[in-house]
Fold:
Amino acid sequence: MIQKQLNESVAYLQSKGFDTPEIGIVLGTGLGKLAEQIEDPIEAHYNHIPFFPLATVEFHSGKLIYGTIEGKKAVVMQGRFHLYEGYDFLDITYPIRVMHQLGIKKLFISNAAGAINLDYKEGDLMLIEDHINLQGGSPLAFKGVGKFGDRFTDMSEPYDVPMRKSLLAIAQKEDITLHGGVYASVVGPQLETKAEYRMLKIIGADAVGMSTVPEVIVANHLNLPIVAVSVITDECDPDNLKSVDIQRIIETAETAEPKMVKLFRELIKTL
Structure:
């Protein structure tokens, strides 16, 4: 059933002019401006794409944009899906499968995250080197998953090492602070308690968010190389915890976004 749905989604996008993109990009909360830099853009709103979920979060836009970035064809997902919106893991990761069938060879992911590692400050960037899945499930746990790739997908190195090395070199050259760390993905939408922040630190997380991991698991299932960057939007110090204003988180992400855009554009140049 899922293959038939994918075929219809892909056929619709190809009819709109989405022609063999090389790169897929997922833009997270407050990180939509990269889409504005696409040359010769073609847009497809999620509510027009067959079998596509709809973005229900007010600060997620809800469209796929196809065009050229740094001379490469790309498809950009402006607005992603989350478990906390009521979707299941198949819904959340459906766009990754669509982009893969369109032809992408690399996947870039961004998100907004809170800092568990208190050496990280608001507005910093973190290159995700590994992750902890605390979302209570897997996007590969469905009947017939073996038709798309190995059911028992290896996750020993889920984030592409060459692209990570390239991003670190670019960050150094451009004088951009880019930490390397572990991202923990939780369900949300509520933010964490003091005790939960302490637990996350104990188990080895450097940052926490509510996305990314399901998409990364599916990309690995599809043998699709991934690089992912978190924008640190707040500092989660359980000993000095203050109420979090979601609007401030979005503003922090938007302020830091040009650095992330610079990293992604410079990386695209090297591919």
